[in-house]
Amino acid sequence: MADNDSSTAERGAWNSKLGFILAASGSAIGLGNIVFFASNAYQYGGGAFYLPYFIALFVMGIPVMITEFSLGTMTGKSFPLALQKLAGKKGEFVGWWSIASALTITMYYITILGWALSMLVGAFGSLLEPGATAPFEGMTEPTAGPSAVTWFFGMVATWWPMLAVVAIWGVTVLLLWRGTETIEKAVRIFVPMMWLFMIGLVINGLLQPGGVDGVLYLFTPNLDGIADVRVWQGAFAQMFFSLSLGLGTMTAYASYLPKDADNVNNSLLVSFLNCGFEYIAGVAIFALLFVYALNPAGTTLSLSFFAIPQGIAGFPFGVKFFGVFFFLLVVIAGLTSAVSLVEGMASPLIDKLGISRAKALSFVLVPGILGSLLFAVPSIIDTGLTGNGTLGLTLLDLVDNWAFRYSLLTVGLLECLLLGWVLGADKIRAAVNVHTKFKLGPWFDWLIKLVIPAILSFVIFFTLVDDFTSAGGKFAEEGGLYGSGYTMPGYEWLPVFIPIAWLTFTIVVAAVLTSRRTVDAAPHEADAVPDTLAV
Ligand code: PHE
């Protein structure tokens, strides 16, 4: 890169629009599309899920993505500093809170990826072979056929996944070493590869006798569930996570675009690529479920970690090949998302503290890897295995309940309120419209100012009330906080401790970073925010 452009060179810039689209869609397509989508769609009854899902996409997902992209292109900064420029200190605090939430989520996201990597290694070896044995007392009897459940619990109850976690963090940091330059190289290989793999899986699923039933389950409208607010809550949280919104990621990626990027076009492209992939993945997975009459009862992870390998083990041929194929796909898709999560945290640290990329990466890596290791701790704390078994799985379950279901939607709500009312949604719209072919109308302002905040407030409020009161709620069924019904002698305090620790951690990190002085080491030409936009 030219010397006279050293500021951009330090901060990073995409080489081409294609590079950006690949990176942003690589961020969006991840565990959310394969692991979480299928289990959500299954849990909420297939056909009952897609109406709320598409409403979530058009009414909220695409407009919020346009907003998050605009924050990046308008200011040339990542999330907290972009919000600070456009909506003041309050905005910066919200931005850092979302970065702290991103760190929490990345910790366990990478642990799950570590388990997927361990399953990949297992798929080469004994995972899909008959004769799996009980890994520890009190769980299952040795099985005659292959048992992915037995294998999975056997694996998480060893120290090996910790090695996998370290490997995933190592690769993530390597892919980020030179910022946009290395990210772009990686996504040019990984993103087309995961599309190819997924298309292979879907064709294979549909060719199996009975595979089409899975598609019917996913697409036959079922209006029964529509009145259930939990279905909507599930669809909205899924949409935010799947589109990589609410954690600062998309703004960091967009800050490396030229100021005249077409944010509407980019949002439409990335959203459609993501949701297209998600539905194709759904078809591939549901086809297998129906062909092999699998019943993925239990946790979110059980569908991809137990049911799918179980289905693959039943293939008449190509068992190892497809097993390896599936977990390689999960690992690659997850890696390009983990890369974006970490970049979304490193980039604002560089912007705020004026530190080098290596230093910023290590600020994320050190707490990140410790957290991921904690989620991989194999000590068995639930001997009856009525809950999650190991300490790591239990921690993951408890943290995910809070971080996943509350943080993204809360950030979405606050960013819409701040940008809609403090800055003015019309100003974002005017800035976007200068560079886009498809002009946003005044409806955009109303979505950002009223409709999305109203929906999100309702969903968040409902989730809280439901969690604490209703009989079917997450906490009330156990007569206390979420998880308090688990049998884990000596660890009964965890369900209370986790939400307090999560809130304290994220608020303290946000407060400390907001209160620090901004050291502008790499001023960007886009720093010159038009006066009308600056607060
Ligand atoms: N969208 C990613 C997935 O579906 C996860 C993610 C969320 C990545 C937020 C970055 C930011 O797996």
Topology at a glance:
Blueprint (H helix, E strand, L loop, with lengths): L5 H6 L5 H12 L2 H13 L6 H26 L3 H46 L23 H9 L3 H16 L4 H28 L3 H9 L9 H14 L6 H6 L8 H29 L8 H14 L5 H35 L3 H18 L16 H44 L8 H26 L25 H22 L20
Helix pairs in contact: 2-8, 2-12, 2-14, 3-10, 3-12, 3-13, 4-5, 4-10, 4-12, 4-16, 4-17, 5-6, 5-7, 5-14, 5-15, 5-16, 5-18, 7-14, 7-15, 8-12, 8-14, 9-12, 10-16, 10-17, 12-13, 14-15, 16-17, 16-18
- What is the SS-derived class? mainly alpha
CATH topology: Amino acid/polyamine transporter I
Into which percentage range does the β-strand content fall?
under 5%
Taking all Cα atoms into account, the compactness measure Rg is 22 Å
How is the biggest beta sheet arranged? none
**From the 3D coordinates, which CATH architecture would you assign?**
Up-down Bundle
**How many E-type strands?**
0
Task: Describe it.
With 535 residues, the chain is an all-alpha fold. It has one domain (3-515): Amino acid/polyamine transporter I. It is 70% helix and 0% strand. The protein is built from 18 helices and no strands. Helix 7 runs antiparallel to helix 15. The protein is globular, with a radius of gyration of 22 Å. Residues 1-9, 133-142, 471-476 and 523-528 have low confidence and may be disordered. It binds phenylalanine.
